[in-house]
Amino acid sequence: MVLVESNIPPLAQTYNKILNNWSTKIVTKDEKKELKSENEHEHEHGTLLENLPVIDLVGLTSIDERERAECAAEIARASSEWGFFQVVNHGINHKLLRDMRREQIELFNAPFSKKSSCGGLLNNSYRWGSPAAVSPDHFSWSEAFHIPLTKISDQTCFCEFPSLREVLVEYAGEMQKLAKLLAGVLIENLGQEKEDFEEAISCDESTCFLRLNHYPRCRVSTPELMHGLVPHTDSDFLTILHQDQVGGLQLLKQSKWISVRPRKDALIVNIGDLFQAWSNDVYKSVEHKVIANPKMERFSVAYFLCPSYDSLIGACKEPSIYRNFTFGEYRTQVQQDSKLIGHKIGLPRFLR
User: Fold this and answer.
1) How far apart are CA 300 and CA 248, in angstroms?
2) pTM for the model
3) Between 33 and 185, where is the model more confident?
């Protein structure tokens, strides 16, 4: 009998090891009960969301100035009140989205050993689980490729997946245009000039990222308590997400977790930490997570609009809520916190 190597990383083994190590530490019964109660509370209070803002981007290209202004106002309002919104008629070809999903599935179906050890595959950007997790609630049941855009045109990064390169190049270019369009609306909404912003803070192909996500079926005894991706905010200006129809994305609003119903024709946009800091908390970077699924796997692709590491992030108007910081400084602090305590702290570290 020929053994077929699994394409799934050793998530269960790693999670159980974290769970056992955590259980053997000096942890009181009350602390364990509190952790279980928090996780159960998170999952019980996710309800289907009917009114996540849906914005038709046709309005931005209308010949009617009033329609353009109304569409821009919808984007700004959703960014302030929700930090999340969906866009339709976004200009991204549906065939391109289908091609990206097909290539993504083929990539993640490769044996785990190939994904984790193939020299140079997508700039060695493969990751799985949560290396810094110190307790079960910090563990993510997922795998991903977090790819700098500077590498997607490099043929040496694609090993046995040559057709993936062509699709990624086109996909990244289209997402870049959409992200810059939306960012321009948000910049001008606060009375700032887009050109001045781009001169001070460059977000282009040399600084942005794509993340290909795969959430395998969760095979532990209590999958209902497992995160596919732990609660977090995004360390960028904005994120554009293309997800499948499985569902599992939840966002935090008014201290309650709300499930986002997948919409086939829509892309999801969310505000990142940098836009919140730049806007002096006018735009909201909202905590979100993915719930693990015991029955179905889930796929998504996220585009992150990021500046160069030396870009200085300051408020668009004074007085500012946060002190000035570079993107590199912010990323370093996030990584240090994640390594030390198992999770990100983010903007509160930079309050004045």
Assistant:
1) 11
2) 0.92
3) 185
